[in-house]
Amino acid sequence: MKFTISQKELADTLAVVSYAVPNKPHHPILNNILLVADKHEQEILVTAFDLSLGIRVQCKSRIELEGKIALPAKLFTQVISSLPKQDIILEIVDNAAIITHSCGKCRIQTVSPQEFPSLPEIEGKNIILPAIKLLQALEGTLFAASHDENKQVLAGVHFQFTNSSWEAAATDGHRLAVVSGTIETDEQLTEHAQIEADSNTVEVTIPQPTLIELQKILGSVGDNSECTINIDNGIAVFTLPNIQITTRLLEGDYPKYSSLIPQQFQHQFIVDRKLFDNALKRVGIVADQKNKIVKIICDYQHQQATLSTESSDIGGAVESLNIKPQDDYQQQLVMGFNIKYMEQALKFLPTNEVLININQTTTPVVITPVDGILNQLILVMPVQLINNNSTAIEEDASDDNEEVIVTENISSVTEVNEGINVAAEAVEIEEDIKDKNDVIKTDSSPQKTTAETRTNSRTSANSTPKPRGRKKKVAAA
């Protein structure tokens, strides 16, 4: 094998495929990348595969001799990235790769390509999405996926595809992110075929690590590029210009999250996203570091929202910003939120303004972008505030003395039981256990006291008084 290629193009290619090189491989061959030179197409195929994620990149080069070889991924990448930015020649001689550049040569031992695993090939339905929309879908959902290995099906993004629409969703049990859009249909389909195609929904859950790497690659392709998705036999293949990403799918039934999303809202207001985000960051600095709770008072009459936090160990803060109410509600609305979840929700909404949709202070709050290119929503569960202990600085004395009770799991307001734990139920169970323990301790204390009294009385009746020091020695013996 012998070919000539630009140093920059080869270095960029290796940087992309390196995403699929495992840190701790199950087999030594997975530490390598596979190079295949195709003289007819005048291109080389560079592949890395860790048995779960595979990336293949095509790059143009001048092929003199065809061939196939495997090279140590980390070593080969370091060597190529350090070379002068000029054309280089790679030639295989006696099972070694000879890399010739403008300043000299370098020799790297190769590995037999026969041991390198092949990427799975599938034949499924082609789903075509604009790369920019798929990128925005990943940006709007990946943050909400679970990082808990015990919740395997939640450690990814769930996709639903029909012939005319698609939807992506992710949840970790505390928040839910959903992004949806349309698919351009084939105009040549008959009406009957169109109805039949729309009725066939394809549902898959793609692992979070795969989508993180796909997100990086989508950010480097052009805005006008398209991504073709093929799904079959537990495998998904994403095809971009000159790049192919192959991944295994997560097994298990994803929760029916659609029942968690309210269809109607009693209160709605629009707020500037950046101003809201900056206010949350400032009050979060002096918030209680354990719970990170912010109290928000929405004054519809004065079109103002007041954010406040207080910590007995650090201090407190109050911020105010303008809102645009979308209803005729004239009273104050008081709610509590986890600052981290609210900040992330605002961070991954792409518009300047967001719409806050509320029903009650203890029901899910839905945040949507104003005039976004996709249908997007983020559901956040508020925390419950009850009058007991002061946890927030207030401008109105009548709203003082409030305690935060964290019940922010999105499933706590529904009867959905597909694997998402209910935080409110966990709190109640924990309190019941504590109460039972207290009862047990209370019941056992008199028995222990009675037993001790009987023992002491028998000892005093059957023995003569002894010095305390000697008694301690006997007890110790």
Describe this structure in words.
The protein is α+β, with helices and mostly antiparallel strands. 25% of the residues lie in helices and 36% in strands. The chain contains nine helices and 28 strands. It has helices spanning 7-17, 73-82, 131-139, 191-199, 208-218, 273-285, 339-347, 423-462, 468-476, and strands spanning 2-6, 32-38, 43-49, 53-60, 62-65, 67-72, 87-93, 96-101, 104-109, 126-130, 156-161, 165-171, 175-182, 202-207, 226-232, 235-240, 243-248, 267-272, 293-299, 304-311, 315-322, 324-325, 332-338, 353-358, 365-369, 375-380, 384-387, 402-405. A hairpin with a 6-residue loop joins strand 24 (353-358) and strand 25 (365-369). The chain is elongated and about 80 Å long.
Output mean pLDDT. Answer: 80
Q: Please compute the radius of gyration using only Cα atoms.
A: 31 Å
Strand order of the largest sheet: 14-11-12-13-26-25-24-18-22
| Overall helicity | 25-40%
Amino- and carboxy-terminal Cα gap: 85 Å
SS class: alpha+beta
Quaternary assembly: single chain
| Main sheet record | 9 strands, antiparallel
Broad shape: elongated
Residue windows where pLDDT falls under 50 for at least 5 positions = 388-408, 411-431, 436-477
Estimate the strand proportion: 35-45%
Number of strands: 28
Number of alpha- plus pi-helical segments: 9
Region (Disordered): 433-477
Main location: cytoplasm
Biased composition (Polar residues): 442-452
Family: Belongs to the beta sliding clamp family.
